[in-house]
Amino acid sequence: MWAYESVFYQIYPFGFCGAPEKNDGLTVSRIHKVSDWMDHIKKVGANAIYFTPLFESDAHGYDTRDYQKIDCRLGTNEDFAILCAELHRQGIKVVLDGVFHHVGRGFWAFQDVREHKQNSRWKDWFFLRFDQDSPYHDGFSYECWEGHHDLVKLNLSNPDVQRHLFESVKSWVEEYDIDGLRLDVAYCLDPAFLEALRKVCDQIKPGFFLVGEIIHGDYRQVFGPNRCHSCTNYECYKGLYSSMNDQNLFEIAYSINRQFGHENGGLYQGAHLFSFADNHDVHRLASVLNDPHHIPLVYAILFAMPGIPCIYYGSEWGAKGRKENGSDEMVRPCFGDPEENELFNQIARLTRIRKESKALCHGSYRTLYLNNRQFVFERSGNGERIVIAVNSDDRETEFFVEELSGSAINLRDGQTQDLHHTIRLAPYGWAYWRMIDK
After folding, report:
1. So where are the chain's domains?
2. What are the pLDDT digits (tens) for 262-289?
3. Distance (Å, rounded) from C-alpha 364 to C-alpha 306?
């Protein structure tokens, strides 16, 4: 699967393009702004873009009105087709958000139900009760997503609903040649629907990638041979920043080992979970770390641990942003020109190293050394052994690693050096070594 050897770049189109927060009905071709960032995205090393929702919606994109029309605030279907063709020419894959659990109140079928009530031919597309009323006084009540009545739950067991959604996916492949989908709130989707979707997508386009959103619990309810290829790794997302803030690297090491540990039978050995330091639903990394010196260390671990790394637009140069009072506006901003600094350069190095290493993309995981402020682990496979070390302390540190001895190439600077059980790292230092067999 191509995604397992890729680095993703996530864009929230409405914020990225500076679109109005609510649908104003005006068609403006803002989506072409992505083209202006093309060189920047390629330079950071991403070879796949994950777009959060961009189909016609009421406001934020997760409240769909029409699955087959690009939101007018971003442009037209033709505008997006031109962009996708350009991305593909540049060797960049395209993954869209599949929001199938619910729609917006402006969705055409729900609008028909509001007008015709029990007489609507679309009433069985939703979960309705005509002996109750909704907070919007529709004359009926309906199931929604987690108490949000602007998000109307779809009846995914209805064959007509499935047919409409699957035909929409097929049209996205035909019109935009998309390469995959991220499934919104996949943890709410019935396994039978996930399996039906996987079967359809496999038929539509070989190598079509599915990644499901899941926050808690056993990730295998979402991914597997007949479901998604991957899922969001929120456990390690949390561990990445809180282990730095607490100066307790045992936390992130525990999570990675629990999931992928080769020696203790990790739960998800061999899986490629979707990994990230931040995204459109959480505070940006630079706003949650107590010490900004730890930002590079988070990315050093992110790009070396098992999984598919994803960069959220702007975070590659350390942009800040917090969700305030339940509002997502500050974490989904419109930037002008992209920025490039030392953090950007480091992430570009990390993407290059990762994409050139089969061990980092597919190898097994093993912890070699761990204390509160230093963490050393190994990825190995395909005849390659990569050792990763980080020092979260504010002073130079030297420590003894029993299983580490031999010649190595420091992938950060290309220098060959001998490692004889002892590692020395600068304050807030990190290193990737490719061990050389003699």
Report:
1. 2-358, 364-435
2. 777 889 999 999 999 999 999 999 999 9
3. 8
